[in-house]
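Quick start: what a row looks like.
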Amino acid sequence: MALGFGVDVGGSGIKGAPVDLDRGALAQERVRLVTPQPATPDAVVDAVAQVLDQAQAPPGAFGLTLPAVVTSGTARTAANIDPSWVGTDVAALVRERTGRQAVVVNDADAAGLAEVRYGAARGVQGTVLVLTLGTGIGSALVRDGRLVPNTELGHLELDGHDAETRASDAARKREDLDWEQWAGRVQTYLRHVDGLLWPDLVVLGGGVSKKTEKWLHLIDVRPELRTAELLNDAGIVGAALLAAEGSPPAG
């Protein structure tokens, strides 16, 4: 069994576990710590070190997701974490604190790649778009199995607004939309993205993917739609996979 290790940093929790890279599944129960507040780089990296210790992570590189655009190991944005992350060389900070090499990646990109390698999009060639509909809209674009990083498609303009402020699950709850109203917005968003990218498959994830019987049948778009399969483990699995491959995605 080929093993990797992934840590997934979110706004509320930091989760890590060894990953069976043959199956794309956690090899043991994950360790979870509450994300420190404020979620500054030093505080979060200290928590990451605790996760590595508690999970008895094997030596060597591990994968680390962040809710941020990441290029060459440096965070360029910050979502649901402290603004001081912007411009932080995360890979260097982790190496200094833990003595380990971290492959740092956007959280949606890690989850999307996991769905392509092991989940709902396994075996699909061409262009796959993985979208997470939650607090915002996360996106991962994969072409013939290769990740195109940091797409940030949740921030496309939709009806004069940032798309995730209209079509995310948080928008549905905030505006008290019924499922049909919200599905109409998601459909408009998907048609817009389809017109730009022409994906062969769209995988829909996030917490709302557990309720697809309420809304998925209301959406009429050109590409095939599938529900994400790896759920809360996708970020850990994708991070471990990228670390095992030896380098972060280009970008």
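That is the whole record. The longest strand covers residues 13-20. Residues 179-197 form the longest helix (19 residues).
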